[in-house]
Amino acid sequence: MLKQSVLDGLNRQIAQELAAAYGYLALAVWFEQQVLDGFEKYFLKQVKEEQEHAMKIMEYIQDQNGDVKLEAVPAPR
Question: How far apart are CA 40 and CA 64, in angstroms?
């Protein structure tokens, strides 16, 4: 069983990974609108990487019988 402080930190990290993915997605959309396909593809790759990080942390929490608590992800600026 995870200590509560560790569990809280892991859940916060999930939110941070998803917020990073959301930010990268916003960049990818902007680059697509500017017809800069290479940059768009790069940032879409980063989106997947951040999502994978979040999923790995989520799976670890579940493997430890902890509760995953998803926080709201703010809109990217």
Answer: 37
What is the identity of the amino acid at 59?
A: E
Model confidence over 18-53: pLDDT tens digits?
999 999 999 999 999 999 999 999 999 999 999 999
Number of structural domains in the chain: 1
- 25: domain CATH number is 1.20.1260.10
Q: How far apart are CA 65 and CA 63, in angstroms?
A: 5
Query: What radius of gyration do the chain's Cα atoms show?
Result: 15
Q: Tell me if the pTM is above 0.85.
A: yes
Residue 69 makes CB contacts below 8 A (sequence gap 6+) with 11
Asked whether 17 and 57 are in contact (CB, 8 A), the reply is yes
